[in-house]
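During the reporting period the student researcher (J.K.) took over the structure-prediction task from the postdoctoral fellow and processed the backlog of single-chain submissions. One of the processed entries is reproduced below for the supervisory committee.
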Amino acid sequence: MGWTWVMIVCLGVVGLDTPASAQSVMAYVDRNPVMADETFQLIVETDQASSGESPEWHILGADFDVLGTTQSQQTSIINMRTTSLVRWIATLAPKRTGAVTIPPIAVGAHHTGPIQLMVNEPNHIREANESQDIFLEADVDSHVPYQQGQVLLTLRLVSSISVQEGRLDEPEIDWGIVERVGKDVSYESARNGRRYHITERRYVITPQQSGTQVIPPILFSGTVQDGRSRGTLFEELFGNRSGSLGRDPFKTSRSIHRRSPKIVLNVKDLPTDLNGRFWLPAKTLTLTETWSGDTDKLQVGDSLTRTIVIRATGQRGEQLPELTVPPQPIVKIYPDKAKTQTDFDGKWVVGSREEKYVLVSTQPGTVRLPAIHVPWWNIETSRWEEASLPAKVLTVLGTLQPASSAKIPATVPAPSVAAVERNRDERDAPMPANFWTSDGSKAFLWPWITGLCFTLWLVTLVAWWHERQKRNGPAQELAKKDEGKFESERKAIQVVKAACLEQSAEKARTALLQWASFKQEGRPCRSLGTVERILSRPVPDHAAISAAIWNLDRTLYTRSAEQQVWDGRQFWETVKPAITAKPPKSRKHEEELPPMYLH
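J.K. obtained the following structure tokens:
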């Protein structure tokens, strides 16, 4: 009986030990609180991980950027008992400040507990004193822009050390349109006795909502040399240093993550005295016209081309209004399709809209083309102004040739034979009453009947041909349009290939953006992120494409001496299956639908 109680007690001790050793999953951070411009590590540990299980990191995407993950496993044997511990480490960068909750993370059937993290505002005073080796600046040309006006955002990566690789995120806002303008500019500058390498990137933001709006911090991630020696081999193998074998034996590399400061804008609303006018905020606006010929020597039937150009500083070409030209009595006006264009002069976007009209004079007289007025809002003086073209008077010379309308009388007197012979224009002579009484007259009538029948046959043939062309015209035009579209896309692909084989990262980026614009039915592509999404559609496994695009974007942010390491040939071999893939025919109508949101 005694031995029985001893066995029960021993089994109870073992049973109490089992839950403690069979803990499911736990998570913790390496420090708390953290700064908004810094990164921290989230560690997830478990002793019950099955093969292939890993944390579901995607749940962190709402509040954090997951910059990288690692995994390690530790196995130990103590008193003939084997224990195994699996550890995952994720490097995270906060997206916002304040109290942030790290949600429970699933690892197989188990979940971690939530973690409360405090994210403090970054210490930009330290950056203002330029005591860091590398930091990111951001500024705008105006903190109080108008709705649908222009905001020029300039990002500057300022570094006093060599950047081995890096990537800058695109601005993400939901209250306006963001467009990257110009090319990246690199230059050297001295600040407080230190020499810095500066790379600038610029964006134009068009606010679509008034009120207080925020440009959130933008993340730069990269790798730099910290200039420290690596120490002894013993320290590398058993110490706590972050280096690894196989790299530069004299210097170590470290990952850096910098965020730009948050920028707050106060977007002005539309003025109250709009009164039905087209809202057009700009720095300058001009209205010009040209004529293809002399407007003072216009004859009946002549044609002239009138070209009107609106040019505005601070507006895209797509934002400029359509002009209204009313019809006129003695001239017919045929408008052509308008052409828009947007340029960048280094500080402002300059948009233009060109409209052409063909005027054909139909009768003599004088016509007065009315003046054209385009009201616009001067953002520098905060008042309404107006660009205009004066009225134009056209004088059409010549005479109008009325259509002949000869009538055959019901009864006509019979002319004499001598009178008929003296009249050479027998076609205009009236028919005699006894026209059918002479055999010779019958012979004279048959050529006219034959000619009339032949003319009617020709008219019928022309009408049939015209109707057929009318029916087949849209199909032929669509076929020509598709053929031209595929030919343009094929040429764009050849440009991408040539840039890659030339080993030029900058040309490859430009060519890829041009190709992506064709794929978006002419809508301009502004970022490599959009290119990556388009390339990933036709291939099932797009991990290699994402890595190739990321490597290209990172290469563009390195110094010119280091850009030579980009392998354009390997890049082309990676993206070639996706860029040359044909869309499946069964989903043709789905693919022709434009996306709901433009990128």
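The committee noted the following: The CA atoms of residues 14 and 20 lie 11 Å apart.
J.K. will present the remaining backlog at the next meeting.
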